[in-house]
Specification:
It catalyses: ATP + H2O = ADP + phosphate + H(+). The chain is built from 16 helices and nine strands. With about 350 residues, the protein is of the alpha/beta class. α8 packs across α9, α12 packs across α13 and α12 packs across α14. It is globular and about 75 Å long. The protein binds adenosine-5'-diphosphate.
Length: about 350
């Protein structure tokens, strides 16, 4: 399964239904983030388990165990790390794997942590090897060896660290080396959200943004949000604009549908790129199998864009399958685009022949 890859291609693709945060998201998300576990919607198991871990640590007066959160972008990993800090009444420092290219970068961060501080390390699987190795010791013994000098004269100076809680986030837990994974006391996998949970997210955000929305409007946006709260919040903002300009501000099913039609996000959350890939597969190649390169040329996109940006969601939705012989459309894909698969046409024709009609 690779629906939860975050790739550079995906991060680079600015799309309304992209799960990676864009500039506008970053500016407004702070206001929409749930502040404690009660406010955090869905992910019942993760919430229940995390609640126990944090309560136990608080009761012992200890720093919480290191936590690993895995799951697709936009599902609430950063939010949960902030909640962990808030529940532990601890400060939080936020950084990411790609920002730590040298062990020295990590040493600088670790040595400046306060006792009990939460260190949120996003995209932890993208940290450099030497930094990763330094992290092993820091997590286990709250100690790092800082190497000073080069070559035969180099010396390692041990540095004691205050106890801290590392919250690591990754889109792909399977990519983490086992020694790193094993050093987390608590590991949680975040699932995509169901429609009713997304509706709650949308109602909550609408309340905070002072937007009027009815239950049908929230359901319509939820259905197009690809299981992802970040996308739900982003679609809500676009629909709000439309409701203000074209109507009286109240978001209903009709308004949400009309607004998202303008942005070419369809009833299942597919955008122009997704639909382009599906349409090419169905109309030009009879539903496949067709090779990735051919499909990419047909839609006028890079191979990587088709493979990393469009396909993961199509596969997750059961609209497209990747087979050794190439890409194949499923019956659900034909139904979604309102087209008839050739086999059904042939079957129909065969029957006509059979019955002489
Ligand atoms: P990630 O770190 O996994 O990419 P974030 O924690 O940044 O995701 O969440 C993205 C946005 O989605 C945040 O603004 C937050 O408001 C919203 N969000 C995520 N999870 C939830 C949730 N369970 N309940 C309410 N809002 C959520």
């Amino acid at each position: 399964m690779n629906w939860d890859d975050t790739t550079d291609a995906e991060a680079a693709a600015e799309r309304l239904v992209g799960a990676v945060a864009d500039g506008e998201d970053q500016a407004v998300e702070a206001a929409l983030r749930p502040k404690d576990l009660h406010e955090f919607i869905g992910q019942e198991k993760v919430r229940e388990q995390l609640d126990l871990v944090l309560r136990a640590a608080r009761a012992r007066g200890a720093t919480a165990d290191h936590v690993l959160l895995s799951g697709a972008p936009g599902l609430g990993k950063t939010t949960l790390s902030m909640i962990i800090a808030a529940e532990m009444e601890a400060p939080i420092r936020i950084t990411s794997g790609p920002a730590i290219q040298h062990a020295g970068d990590l040493a600088a961060i670790l040595s400046s942590l306060q006792e009990g501080e939460v260190l949120f390390l996003d995209e932890i699987h993208r940290m450099s090897r030497p930094a990763e190795e330094m992290l092993y010791m820091a997590m286990e013994d709250f100690r790092v060896d800082v190497v000073v000098g080069k070559g035969p004269g180099a010396t390692a100076i041990p540095l004691e660290l205050p106890p801290f809680t590392l919250v690591g986030a990754t889109t792909r837990a399977g990519l983490l080396p086992p020694p790193l994974r094993d050093r987390f006391g608590f590991t949680a996998h975040m699932e995509f959200y169901g429609p009713s949970e997304l509706e709650r997210v949308i109602h909550r955000s609408a309340g905070l943004l002072d937007v009027e929305i009815d239950t049908t409007g929230a359901a319509e946006i939820a259905g197009r949000s690809r299981g992802t709260p970040r996308i739900a919040n982003r679609l809500l903002r676009r629909v709000r604009d439309y409701a203000q300009v074209k109507a009286d501000g109240l978001i209903t099913q009709e308004i949400a549908g009309a607004a998202l039609a303008v942005y070419e996000v369809d009833a299942r959350g597919l955008d122009r790129l997704d639909r382009g890939v599906l349409e090419a597969l169905l109309k030009l190649f009879g539903g496949g199998p067709v090779g990735l390169s051919t499909l990419a040329v047909a839609v006028g996109e890079e191979r990587e864009t088709v493979e990393e940006v469009a396909e993961p969601f199509l596969v997750r939705e059961g609209l497209l399958a990747r087979t050794p012989r190439g890409r194949v459309a499923t019956p659900a894909a034909w139904a979604h685009l309102g087209l008839t698969p050739p086999s059904a046409q042939n079957a129909g024709k065969g029957q006509q022949d059979l019955f002489g009609t």
